[in-house]
Amino acid sequence: DTGVSQDPRHKITKRGQNVTFRCDPISEHNRLYWYRQTLGQGPEFLTYFQNEAQLEKSRLLSDRFSAERPKGSFSTLEIQRTEQGDSAMYLCAGQGPHANTGELFFGEGSRLTVL
Amino acid sequence: KQEVTQIPAALSVPEGENLVLNCSFTDSAIYNLQWFRQDPGKGLTSLLLIQSSQREQTSGRLNASLDKSSGRSTLYIAASQPGDSATYLCAPYNTNAGKSTFGDGTTLTVKP
Known about the structure:
Strand content of chain A: over 45%
Shape of chain B: globular
Radius of gyration of chain A: 13 Å
Shape of chain A: globular
Mean pLDDT of chain A: 92
Low-confidence stretches of chain A: none
Number of helices of chain B: 0
Structural class of chain A: mainly beta
Order of helices and strands of chain A: EEEEEEEEEEE
Low-confidence stretches of chain B: none
Distance between the termini of chain B: 41 Å
Strand content of chain B: over 45%
Number of strands of chain B: 11
Largest sheet of chain A: 7 strands, mixed
Distance between the termini of chain A: 32 Å
Order of helices and strands of chain B: EEEEEEEEEEE
Helix content of chain A: under 10%
Mean pLDDT of chain B: 95
Oligomer: heterodimer
Structural class of chain B: mainly beta
């Protein structure tokens, strides 16, 4: 158990709907990362937070994607107007307390299927 | 931009064999490198973390080596078991980028 939990584990939605994923790291994780993984590929970086500050967003994140980490605790990733190409596993990872020495600890992921 | 390559993409071995998985990366300015295991439909489980100042790290039947200057890491699995069947991913962490970059993994099948 990594201590990182994600919810929901599975989400099936119709194209055009909005979806939101939540990640709860442990309190020591001052950094929080979101990655996306499609079948047969390695995880691709989406964005990361240092406490509540969003420090970087990948070009993979279109304007339909938004992420927040209020108060530096849990984080949410919202996808608006979903498209079939958004179907993937969305992975959250915590790191800390020392970002440059610590391991990444992943949650079990949230699998999105867009019909 | 960091690029990570893992060879082979897939590997099938009989139980009991020793095996080596390879990981190469283009940007050697890394702070650490982490090896993960992923079972189908699941998240990533951390196996080993090697700091840039280290050459090797061992955990049970697993041994990971790192040659930062040449941009290479290997994961050695001794006496493989069917339960080792999974996808293995490597991820170097670049301080200047503030993130880890993943390869596409090696899918290992160990036959009883």
